[in-house]
Design brief:
The complex is a heterodimer of chains A (229) and B (254). Chain A contains 10 helices and no strands. By secondary structure, chain A is an all-alpha fold. Chain A has one domain: 3 helical TM bundles of succinate and fumarate reductases (Up-down Bundle), CATH 1.20.1300. Classes of the chains: A mainly alpha (229), B alpha+beta (254).
Chain lengths: 229, 254
């Protein structure tokens, strides 16, 4: 047992071990995004379909399903955040900068990962308070009646939609580098697959981006406004 | 033969403990046929004539093999030209009137000794931790005694081209040594001779790398872009894979 805990301990302390944890938790979050987006797009199927989907999520496994998912996501998000901050601090401490800075091929998105990530963190906190905890009493009342209506009314606030779109833009940037990095860190990338992986990561980021921002944009342009008057 | 007049911004540092600074020098009448190191030689001759301290820099073979000429030129190790060391860089790549920034390779694991000279013995300690195979010495074995598939031999040879210059560390914004370590590990791990000690090699080399204070890879691949031997970051992916497998095997069957 001590051999197992010892090697687990040195794995978590090692640079590659930490990166593998970030990659695996990142993968879980990336897959969650696909599921979340698929569910959200039901908003276009109308009030009944969306509310039924929301009801299903909350009653799945007698209501424990949603909590299992939340706990899993919390662990992944927490570990992803904790280890990336740890790694970033080590990276900053590993060298001092050049008087004349230059990069050859590092994409912009890869240089701002910690900032795009922290913006996403701020957004997730807001997003949970807004639509899950529902700190706005009026919105909570609407949400209890129809989640579909809550989303429409929520996004009719231009500031909410603007913040949402900004956060999704940074999420898209985060994914463009992050999704490709999952393959490299888990050792699944080679010279032959490097090109397809890069394209796949960008395509995935684009699908997630346009999928998510389509909702506030559609609502700002009047989608669902008749139903919530 | 045409000549260039250049302005150099050079990192000067008296010793390992002193604060460094950028100083400006005029490099006059530099022949375009000169190599970059010869250009510094010309500037140094003038500095010595004028009674000033010449710019100290590391160099040895001056033909791209030894990996000593560790310097960053305009923010990029060995300059922005691909697949060369500083000694293989020619002054014809510059224009008259250019300003050139010359700095030592930057990494806390590579402390500056003086001016552009850095101490890269951290690499030696990583090699000592696992960059070897244990075999009986004596007469050389027959070349065909152990068959090696061609693709493995090629992959091992690509990795073995590493000259340990440290450009990968210098280019990485995190001062990560992953390309170096992965090349050295990959070189032996691809071959049957290296297979026996593979797990221990990977674990020991990565642990030594971490102990030396190098940063963590963030998959930006600046390393492979500046590598004078153009070693691919796919070796890093292999190191990640091998490390994961070695850690797992260590955990279940120590």
């Amino acid at each position: 047992m001590s051999a197992l805990t010892n090697s687990l301990g040195s794995f978590i302390k090692s640079s590659i071990g930490r990166k593998i944890i970030v990659a695996v938790t990142g993968l879980a979050l990336v897959l969650f995004l696909a599921g979340h987006l698929t569910g959200n797009l039901l908003i276009y199927a109308g009030q009944e379909a969306f509310d039924e989907y929301a009801h299903f999520l909350h009653t799945f496994l007698h209501g424990t399903g949603v909590w299992i998912a939340r706990l899993g996501l919390l662990v992944c998000f927490g570990a992803h955040l904790w280890f990336t901050i740890l790694l970033t601090r080590e990276n900053k401490a590993a060298r001092k900068g050049y008087a004349h800075q230059a990069t050859v091929q590092a994409p912009k998105s890869s240089l701002i990962m910690i900032w795009s990530g922290l913006t996403i963190l701020a957004f997730v906190i807001f997003h949970l308070l807004h639509f899950t905890v529902r700190t706005d009493a009026e919105l909570a009342k609407i949400g209890a009646e129809s989640p579909w209506k809550m989303v429409i009314i929520g996004f009719q606030n231009p500031l909410v939609s603007l913040f949402y779109i900004i956060a999704m833009t940074l999420l898209c940037s985060h994914l463009a580098h992050g999704v490709a990095s999952i393959f490299q860190t888990l050792g699944l990338r080679s010279n032959r697959t490097a090109g397809p992986i890069r394209i796949f990561a960008k395509a995935y980021a684009a699908v997630i981006y346009f999928g998510f921002i389509s909702i506030p944009l559609a609502i700002l342009f009047g989608y669902g406004s008749d139903a919530v008057k | 033969m045409s000549h260039l007049n250049l302005t150099l911004k050079v990192w000067r540092q008296d010793n390992a403990t002193s604060e460094g600074r950028i100083e400006t020098y005029e490099a006059k009448e530099i022949p375009t046929s000169a190599s970059f190191l010869e250009m510094i030689d010309i500037v140094n001759e003038r500095l010595i004539r004028d009674g000033e301290e010449p710019i100290h820099f590391d160099h040895d073979c001056r033909e791209g093999i030894c990996g000593m000429c560790s310097m960053t030129i305009n923010g990029i190790p060995h300059s922005k030209e691909r697949g060369i060391t500083t000694c293989q860089l020619h002054m014809r790549k510059f224009k008259d009137g250019d300003t050139i920034w010359i700095e030592p390779f930057r990494a806390n694991a590579f402390p500056v000794v003086k001016d552009l000279v850095v101490d890269r013995s951290a690499f030696d300690r990583i090699i000592a931790a696992g960059g070897y195979i244990s075999v009986r010495t004596g007469s050389a074995p027959d070349a065909h005694a152990i068959p090696v598939p061609k693709s493995d031999a090629d992959a091992a040879f690509d990795a073995a081209a590493c000259i340990g210059c440290g450009a990968c560390v210098a280019a990485c914004k995190n001062a990560s040594a992953m390309l170096f370590v992965s090349a050295k590990a990959s070189h032996l791990n691809h071959l049957p001779q290296g297979e026996v000690e593979k797990d221990q090699r990977v674990l020991n080399m990565v642990r030594q790398m971490d102990a030396e204070g190098f940063g963590n890879c963030t998959n930006q691949f600046e390393c492979e872009a500046v590598c004078p031997k153009e070693i691919s970051a796919q070796h890093i992916a292999k190191l990640n894979r091998d490390y994961l497998a070695a850690s797992a095997r260590e955990a279940v069957a120590p």
